[in-house]
Design a protein that fits this description.
This protein has one domain (7-87): Multidrug-efflux Transporter Regulator, Chain: A, Domain 2 (Orthogonal Bundle). Helix content is 65%, strand content 5%. It is built from four helices and two strands, in the order E-H-H-E-H-H. It has helices spanning 9-16, 20-28, 44-59, 64-87; strands spanning 7-8, 41-42.
């Protein structure tokens, strides 16, 4: 079930203490896809992904290419989990 917690880019930047340019880079790299790209609105899934990216880059020192690989692997695991749930 999806949450109705949506935040605009300004709120996201304030929450994570980052600039809008950082968010735009994440979008350009296709690491995140905002709920509404035109209005720059983000949902809980986007926020969790932003937090993960920041943790990978800032706390763990992981480079951009590795971030992409990690995000793709996480997406694959989530896809497989969803498939398992539908089979049960």
């Amino acid at each position: 079930m999806k949450s109705l917690n949506h935040k605009r880019i300004e709120e996201v930047c304030q929450e994570y203490l980052i600039s809008e340019e950082v968010i735009h880079k994440f979008i350009l790299e296709e690491w995140i896809v905002p709920l509404d790209l035109e209005q720059m609105v983000f949902d809980d899934e986007d926020l969790a992904r932003i937090g993960l990216i920041l943790e990978l880059k800032d706390e763990l020192g992981i480079g951009d290419e590795a971030v992409l690989i990690i995000l793709r692997l996480i997406d694959q695991v989530n896809f497989l989990r969803a498939g398992i749930k539908t089979v049960k």
